[in-house]
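Allow me, if you will, to draw on your knowledge of protein folds for a short while. I have a record of one protein: its chain in single-letter code and its fold written as C-alpha cells. Kindly check, if you would, that the fold set down in the C-alpha cells agrees with what the sequence suggests. Thank you for your consideration; the sequence and its C-alpha cells are set out here:
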Amino acid sequence: PAGGLALLLGVLLWRALHGAPLTELSGDQDFQLFLQRNLEFTRKIRGDVAALQRVVCDTLQLCNEDELLLVRQDLDVAQAPLEQCHKRTFQAETCFSQIRAGLRIYHGSLTTIQALLPGHTRLVETLQLDMANLSSNIQQQMEDLGLATVTYPTENQDPLPTFSSNFHHQVGSFFILANFQRFLETAYRALRHLTNL
C-alpha cells in the first residue's frame, strides 16, 4: 500500500537526515524516478533561461557580467539562497524547501523581464509554468516522503524588484537571469547528488 511505502520512506529519510546514510533511499524506484524526471525538468528550465539570456544579450546588448558589476551594486536583485543544497551541509528536507522558495522568488522576478521583452512573453510564461510544475513536483515528493512542506500563499507574493531607470531595469533583468541560472545549476547538482547516494 502507498501509505506504508510513504511511512517507510519517511522513517528512512528521517534516519538519513539525522545521521544515517541515505543509501536506503537510493534503491527506492519512485524516488529515483522523481529524481530522473526532475533532473530533466531542471535541464529544460536551464535551457529556457539560457534562451532568455541570449535574448537579453541580442536585444539589449547586455552580455558580460563583469562589465555590469558596478551597476549591480545599485540594484535590488534577489539571490535565492541554496546553502542547504551544498554537499558539506546537505540536508534533503531543507534543500528541497530552499529550491521551492527560490523558484517562487524567481517566478515573480521573471514578470519584470516579461515587461522588458514583450515579444518573448510566451517563453517567459512557459518558463514560469515549468517552474511552478517543478515546485509542485518537489512538494508532492516531500509529502510522499513525510517531510515538512511549506505551502506558499499565491496572493501575497514577494514584492517585485523595482528599478529607478530603464537601464537599471535592463541590467536588473540580466542579473535576475544570471542568478537564476546559478541557482538552477546548484539545484541540479543537489538532485544529481541524491541519485548518486
Remarks:
- Residues 48 and 126 are 8 Å apart (CA to CA).
- The radius of gyration is 18 Å.
